[in-house]
Amino acid sequence: MPPETLETCRQSDAVLLAAIGGYKWDSLPRAQRPETGLLGLRAGLELFANLRPATILPQLIDASSLKRDVIEGVDIMVVRELTGGFYFGQPRCVFEADGDQLGCYTMADSGSEIDRIGRVAFEAAQKRQGRLCSVDKANVLEVSQLWRDRITALATDYGNVDLSHMYVDNAAMQLLRWPKQFDTIVTGNLFGDILSDAAAMLTGSIGMLPSASLGSSGPGVFEPVHGSAPDIAGEDKANPLAQVLSAAMMLRYGLSQPQAADMIETAVNTVLDQGYRTGDIMADGMTAVGCKAMGQALLQALG
Ligand code: IPM
Ligand code: MG
Q1: Backbone phi, psi, residue 72, to 5°
Q2: Ligand 1: which of 193, 214, 226 to mutate, most ligand atoms within 8 Å of CB?
Q3: Per-residue pLDDT of the chain (303 residues; tens, 9 = 90+)
């Protein structure tokens, strides 16, 4: 269960967003692509903290590609920095140089940006099992060394949190090797994007993972971790549960209605207990349903 409130993030309103993107927009100029709009929303609303809980539900253990003893009981919160790093660093361009092309990008996180996401992560860890793993690439990148130094300095304010550090390549491996070692993970924008997809697969399907994007005030944005799955668009095959669980996170964090959030999360548990499964989480002996039927089952479970 995600922490109910975080001191650093006070939402006054909420936006629930569906996954965006698709083939028909892939060739548009970058400025017109849906992803650019999403990034503009995150930056414009200063939603620097992205909470991505990856919890394995007992009903879905057999849907995971990993062994039962590896994933049973996994409960990880990935706290991803959302408005800095590679995604927003300047300069970024592709230019011609000496008869070749050069792609140029910048990974930039200021000390204050690292501190504010660090505080969210320490607070989240305090409300969970008290273990925080900060993921970086400090053996190669100076910006990651700054990240490590700032996070380490913050630890003095959170004496009850056990802080560790891990390089991102090792973290990717450890997530698959023994995910139960993780409680709360804090990391930068790009590393968080990648690791949260990996963490999603521990739960059986990325179709199960919700997220909350929070700032220090103003509205939060709540969206599933997965993409828009254009390959199955219109086929009534998609798993709606990540989207529905994102609505629960919206109620919990954005609208301060934890009881309504609990009701939705309970309904999700109920339909899984009843054996309903979309294709991505289907297992032997379960009832295969499409997106609409799963929605109907949820409505019934909500009463
Ligand atoms: C995510 C998505 C987005 C990201 C895309 C759609 C821009 O992958 O929310 O994880 O990279 O942040
Ligand atoms: Mg992603």
Answers
A1: -55, 125
A2: 193
A3: 456 567 788 777 888 888 888 898 999 998 999 999 999 999 999 999 999 999 999 999 988 889 999 999 999 999 999 999 999 999 999 999 999 999 999 999 999 999 999 999 999 999 999 999 999 999 999 999 999 999 999 999 999 999 999 999 999 999 999 999 999 999 999 999 999 999 988 988 889 999 999 999 889 999 998 888 899 999 999 999 999 999 999 999 889 899 999 999 999 999 999 999 999 999 899 999 999 999 999 999 998
Residues of the chain with CATH 3.40.718.10: 42-227
Ligand 1 touching residue 193 (CB < 6 A): yes
pTM, to two decimals: 0.93
Query: Is 87 a catalytic site residue?
Result: yes
Q: For residues 202 and 287, what is the distance between their CA atoms, to the nearest angstrom?
A: 22
18 Cβ inside 6 Å of ligand 1: no
Name residues with Cβ closer than 5 Å to ligand 2, which is an ion.
193
- Minimum-distance ligand 1 atom for the alpha carbon of 197: 10
Q: What is the DSSP letter of 9?
A: B
Give the architecture (CATH level 2) of 42-227: 3-Layer(aba) Sandwich (3.40)
